[in-house]
Write a structure and sequence with these properties.
Elements lengths: L2 E11 L5 E11 L3 E5 L6 H8 L7 E6 L2 E2 L4 H6 L1 E4 L11 H11 L6 H10 L15 H13 L5 E5 L7 H16 L3 E5 L3 H7 L2 E6 L2 E7 H8 L2 E7 L16 E2 L5 E6 L5 H13 L4 E8 L2 H9 L4
Parallel strand pairs: 3-8, 3-9, 6-7, 7-8
Antiparallel strand pairs: 1-2, 1-4, 4-5, 9-10, 11-13, 11-14, 12-13
Length: 308
């Protein structure tokens, strides 16, 4: 599939010497959903701001739809919709006028039917004549999303779109994302809700300290880095794990009532059976067992040492 966004050796260094991006290169495919994960200050918002033409890069080249974001600003900006973190709206304007005006400033002809469709999809149609200052924070967030979609962009950036919003908006947001993807819109999101990235993204990028640590297909990433964990509840507490069990590299809980075994998802069932047999030979009785798959959050923390 063709790349709609191409980033090559992108850097951004501010006047105070802080390096926000350090030689980032990335291709984003048309029609995919890419989730960018990283702690605060990792460089995610700086990268988005450069692609959207809000911030100038120190060096490197970024193209959107084959157009350079610096040299061909008007062409690239018309292809992009951006939902920023901050609530930046004219508080005294109506919802309908705000969203319609946003379409106009991107050089698009009036299309009341499209504006109505967008507002209805975000449960804003009943509020179309309300002033923005009369809306709740969640409703204002919906208006930002509507503005970003007003000119029918080919690429949609969602910068922490559901941070601090209610469950209903989050549900509507991801339903809308699914609809847009079916229409061929490329979606790039940053999020602190790793379960959301795990649920909807095709690929996951991990950004930390201005560097792109990896970009990987979500399923392949989970397969390569993910591990499973078997937790064995014991009938009686154990003071230490017998030496004959060293090959399994087991961990004993502080109270001695659980043994934890980490293993790769593709481990053969025979290896687990061999462990259980070895426990029995060591007179260690198991009362119950449970397994869990390593989550995307576990992988993120292992790579960055921080929560997203």
């Amino acid at each position: 599939m063709a790349s709609i966004i191409s980033i090559r050796d992108l850097t951004k260094t501010y006047a105070n010497g802080f390096s926000a991006l350090k030689g980032v290169s990335l291709d984003i495919e048309e029609g995919e959903i890419l989730a960018l994960l990283g702690p605060n200050g990792a460089g995610k918002t700086t990268m988005i701001s450069i692609i959207c033409g809000i911030v100038n890069p120190t060096s490197g080249v970024v193209t959107v739809g084959g157009h350079d974001v610096v040299k061909d600003f008007r062409q690239t900006r018309s292809l992009i919709g951006l939902v920023p973190q901050e609530l930046t709206t004219d508080q005294f304007e109506s919802v309908l006028n705000t969203v319609s005006f946003s379409r106009g400033i991107h050089g698009c002809k009036a299309n009341p039917a499209h504006i109505e469709k967008v507002l209805k999809s975000l449960s804003l149609w009943d509020k179309r004549n309300s002033a923005l200052r009369e809306l709740s924070g969640g409703m204002k967030r919906r208006v930002l999303i509507a503005k970003a979609l007003s000119h029918e962009p080919k690429v949609l950036f969602l910068d922490e779109p559901t941070a601090g919003v209610d469950v209903a908006l989050r549900r509507d947001m991801w339903s809308l994302v699914s609809d847009l993807r079916r229409e061929g819109v490329t979606i790039i999101l940053t999020t602190h809700y790793i379960e959301e990235a795990e649920e909807i993204a095709d690929r996951v990028g991990i950004v930390n300290k201005g560097e792109l640590l990896l970009v990987e297909d979500k399923a392949k990433l989970m397969g390569k880095l993910g591990r499973k964990q078997m937790v064995l509840d014991l009938v009686e507490p154990l003071k230490s794990i017998p030496g004959r069990l060293d090959e399994w590299d087991l961990k004993l809980s502080a109270d001695g009532m659980q043994i934890v075994y980490d293993y790769q998802p593709d481990a053969t069932p025979g290896s687990l059976m061999a462990l259980l047999a070895a426990l029995e030979l060591s007179s260690i009785a198991v009362s119950d067992m449970a397994s869990r798959q390593t989550s995307l959050e576990d992988i993120f923390v292992s790579m960055t040492g921080e929560k997203a």
